[in-house]
Write a structure and sequence with these properties.
heterodimer; A: alpha+beta; Rossmann fold; OB fold (Dihydrolipoamide Acetyltransferase, E2P); about 25% helix; globular; B: MetI-like fold; two-stranded antiparallel ribbon; 14 helices; about 0% strand
Chain lengths: ~375, ~300
């Protein structure tokens, strides 16, 4: 957690906006091919010290290949990878100050929890009491003291996950790689463990790179997320930026729920424009900071929770459209409404159920207004 | 009732094909040799009733076992058999481990073929295959001809009818029993364990030593017992490939039965062989059980 005595500007951890900060890891035009298949396509990326960096994308997007190149199990076909300014392309995995937590955990089944954690330290030929002190420290950190003598098959999945974490942290690597670390855990345990991971990352000050296909997980733990698709990084940004200001339809659609409305663009001011998407509906007014020419076809992306459903036409919002409720999904904390506009466009709306009223304001087939502010959505050209 | 019937099948099988023959052999080992058919006394004659039965048991004794302990031929033969079995097992392990390792690392589509190749020799008669080795190892055999034509040696090597030939024959014959359990242990090995070992600072070699080898231990133990146990009693290979100085208990047993027609002594030899082998068999079964527990 942030130290309250510091000034807000210092607690903000964002070395990526500081031009003088030197990245811990640099990918420079890295390409990796497996035969004819291009897993990583001319990729350039910086990761800074103490970052919790998430590689997010669907399976087959190259995120695991990227991580395996950091670990040393794959060699880039072209390009350069540096750690602390030194090229690591030719350094074998056992000589890199990088450790990895495997998706399957890869705990040694013939060794006890204690020996699993000590495995890497013993390879460094450390003194016995130093090894034992370090192992005990790791056991304390991951709350595994009671299970030190057990074999991996004698502990639960969550405990195994913590052993794997302790083992990969034991050598105090400069960089810790986590390959879908929470994939095998059930939902509740996964959420708890996410916070534990963040806590441990902060305590140890290690740079973490996590590979995941779970966008909620990436949003929760990461300082920055790299959204990947087909071997390329589509967007690298903080979770909030990736969610609120996606740079492409792909990112907007991959992260969270979104309404994507295709239309034609027309500029109305220096920082505003209109998107015409239907001849039955008024054009959408939106803030535009990019340079988009008139008549260009664009996609307007707006998150369901930014839209409101009302019975009467609201006066305070620029964008409003008339429609009919087709479907309602009650999720407890929020309800989602599927509203069909007069022109046939479907719009998803999420509204918080902030009161425990037993009657719903709206029901199926109600005619309603959906409305949103000018700044609620983003105009995407990619 | 049905459950009982189901369990009864294997037990009846064991009773008829193991326990009954064992009791018969045990009984013969306690009898005395005689010029008769069968060539031993006493024989059980139930027509004389209770007294006959008592007389029958009164005549049984441990004389043959005492005889075995007095003549050093027998314990030397046992020791020599155990030594040959042990050396062959180690040789089979040394030859079999790289084969099994290579098979387990081969591309998926190759594995069924490689497995087939290991099992293939079983499709021809064991006797023919051992005989073939005679042609290879003989003084004018293929091996000597080849080595002399290449110019490695000037005079033919004497391999046939020595212990070396016996070792070659045993390792060749029993190799599949070593390779298959090793392969099954190595094949199950999760490749990410080796990556984890390397990631934690192991070289390829030390990763093999610290991870692959200990994790293939159940396969090593199973394969070793599958070779060791039958080799101790092996008769055909030493008889065909071994020389006069190849001393194995299987050959002694054969001589007692068929050359000397001394069934009681031969039976005693068999009983002691079984007693010796029970120790590794029990160890083997315990290993299997422990393995199942660890996986369960």
């Amino acid at each position: 957690m942030a130290d309250n005595t510091r000034k807000p500007s210092e607690t903000e951890f964002s070395p990526w906006i500081d031009p003088s900060a030197k990245p811990l890891i640099e990918f420079r035009n890295v390409t990796k091919k497996f035969g004819d298949f291009t897993a990583i396509d001319n990729l350039t990326l910086d990761i800074f010290e103490r970052e919790f960096f998430a590689l997010l994308g669907p399976s087959g997007c190259g995120k695991t290949t990227l991580m395996r190149m950091l670990a040393g199990f794959e060699r880039p076909t072209e390009g350069e990878i540096t750690l602390d300014g030194q090229s690591i392309v030719d350094v074998p995995p056992n000589l890199r100050p990088v450790n990895m937590m495997f998706q399957s955990y890869a705990l040694f089944p013939h060794l006890s929890v204690w020996d699993n954690i000590a495995f890497g330290l013993k390879r460094d030929k450390l003194e016995k009491d130093k090894i034992s002190a370090r192992v005990n420290e790791m056991l304390r950190l991951t709350r595994l003291e009671k299970f030190a003598r057990r074999k991996p098959h004698q502990i639960s999945g969550g405990q195994r996950q913590r052993v794997a974490l302790a083992r990969s942290l034991a050598k105090a690597p400069k960089l810790l790689l986590l390959d879908e670390p929470l994939g095998a855990l059930d939902r509740k345990l996964r959420e708890e463990t996410q916070f534990e991971l963040m806590d441990i990352q902060e305590k140890t000050g290690t740079t973490f790179v996590i590979v995941t296909h779970d966008q909620e997980e990436a949003m929760t733990v990461a300082s920055r997320i790299a959204v990947m698709d087909h071997g390329k990084v589509v967007q690298v940004d903080t979770p909030a930026q990736v969610y609120e200001v996606p740079n492409s339809v792909y990112v907007a659609d991959f992260i969270g729920d979104v309404n994507l409305i295709k239309g034609d663009f027309a500029r109305t001011g220096p920082e505003s424009g209109k998107i015409t998407y239907s001849n039955k509906e008024p054009a959408i007014s939106a803030e535009v900071f990019e340079d988009i020419s008139d008549g260009q076809s664009v996609t307007y992306a707006i998150r369901p929770e930014k839209i409101r459903v009302t019975a009467d036409k609201p006066d305070d919002r620029v964008n409003a459209a008339y429609g009919k409720i087709i479907d309602i999904g009650y999720l407890g904390n929020v309800s989602t409404y599927h509203v069909e506009l007069a022109g046939g466009q479907m719009v998803k709306v999420a509204m918080t159920n902030s009161t425990r009223v037993d009657r719903r304001d709206f029901t199926w087939d109600d005619d309603v207004w959906v409305s949103w502010r000018e700044s609620a959505g983003v105009v995407l050209t990619k | 009732m049905r459950r009982f019937a189901l369990i009864a099948v294997p037990y009846l099988w064991l009773l008829a094909l193991f326990l009954v023959p064992f009791v018969i052999v045990l009984k013969i080992s306690l009898s005395d040799t005689a010029l008769a058919i069968p060539p031993y006394v006493p024989t059980l004659d139930l027509s004389e009733g209770w007294d006959g039965l008592r007389a029958f048991f009164a005549e049984l004794d441990f004389e043959n076992f005492v005889f075995l302990s007095e003549d050093d031929l027998y314990w030397k033969a046992y020791l020599s058999s155990l030594r040959i079995a042990l050396v062959s097992t180690i040789l089979a392990l040394i030859v079999g481990y790289p084969i099994a390792y290579g098979m387990s690392r081969a591309p998926d589509e190759w594995r069924p073929t490689l497995l087939m190749l290991v099992i293939l020799p079983f499709w021809t008669s064991f006797l023919i295959r051992v005989y073939a080795w005679k042609a290879i190892l003989a003084q004018e055999g293929f091996l000597n001809q080849f080595l002399m034509s290449v110019g490695v040696i000037a005079d033919p090597l004497t391999i046939l009818n020595t212990n070396t030939a016996v070792y070659i024959g045993i390792v060749y014959t029993y190799l599949p029993f070593m390779v298959l359990p090793l392969y099954s242990a190595l094949e199950r090995l999760d490749g990410s364990l080796l990556e984890a070992a390397e990631d934690l600072g192991c070289s390829r070699f030390s990763a093999f030593w610290l991870v692959t080898l200990p994790l293939s231990r159940p396969g090593i133990i199973a394969g070793s017992f599958l070779v060791f146990i039958p080799v101790v009693g092996e008769y055909v290979i030493p008889a065909l490939l071994g020389g006069s100085d190849t001393l194995m208990i299987g050959k002694v047993l054969w001589d007692e039965f068929f050359a000397n027609r001394d069934w009681p002594v031969a039976s005693a030899v068999a009983i002691i062989l079984l007693a010796i082998l029970i120790i590794p068999i029990v160890l083997f079964l315990r290993n299997e059980e422990k393995q199942r527990e660890a996986e369960g």
